[in-house]
Design a protein that fits this description.
two-stranded antiparallel sheet; 7 strands; alpha/beta; 47% helix; five-stranded parallel β-sheet
Length: 171
């Protein structure tokens, strides 16, 4: 296929050619913007490595109800309404790897940007949030309140076992 063939095709299909050009520009823009967001996007497997090898601080910016429904072992909950890079928990970790997560990844992306702007050098964001962690069938904690004794029990389960546990009446 020569350049003249491509030009002929573009001339015969202007709408399709324009759509291709727009999609190409959007793709290039997205990839370039990702390089300059100031934080690194990690998968659940990469997050596991950061936790195990570098003692990363995992900050969950989910609402407390979502946090209690399931969170990563060792993560610290700071709701978005109270999130600040000056938080005393975060101030101690300015040079450590800090991974920001939430249920879907939307709120945590904003929090990661704020940390980067505040001078945190190693900021990470879990792509697709806790949902991706659960879909990878990695263990997490959820909290069960026992109404009879007013006690709080934290249990560690993989997602499939958690569903089975909850489906059997332990809500």
């Amino acid at each position: 296929m020569s350049l003249s063939d491509l030009m002929q095709f573009a001339g015969q299909n202007p709408l399709l050619s324009a759509l291709f050009a727009v999609l190409t520009v959007a793709l290039v823009y997205t990839e370039i913007a990702r390089l300059f967001v100031g934080f690194k996007i990690v998968s659940p497997a990469q997050l596991t490595e950061l936790i195990n090898r570098e003692s990363a601080l995992v900050v969950d910016v989910s609402a407390i109800d979502d946090f209690e429904k399931g969170h990563i072992l060792g993560s610290k909950q700071i709701s978005m309404s109270q999130f600040s890079p000056d938080n005393k928990l975060l101030a101690k970790a300015k040079e450590l790897p800090v991974v920001v997560v939430c249920k879907s990844g939307q709120q945590s992306s904003d929090a990661a940007k704020r940390l980067h702007k505040a001078g945190f050098s190693r900021v990470y964001w879990l792509n697709d949030g806790i949902n991706s962690w659960a879909n990878a069938d990695l263990p997490f904690i959820f909290i069960v309140f026992d109404g009879r004794h007013q006690q709080c029990h934290s249990l560690i389960f993989h997602d499939s076992r958690r569903r089975h546990f909850l489906d059997n009446g332990f809500k």
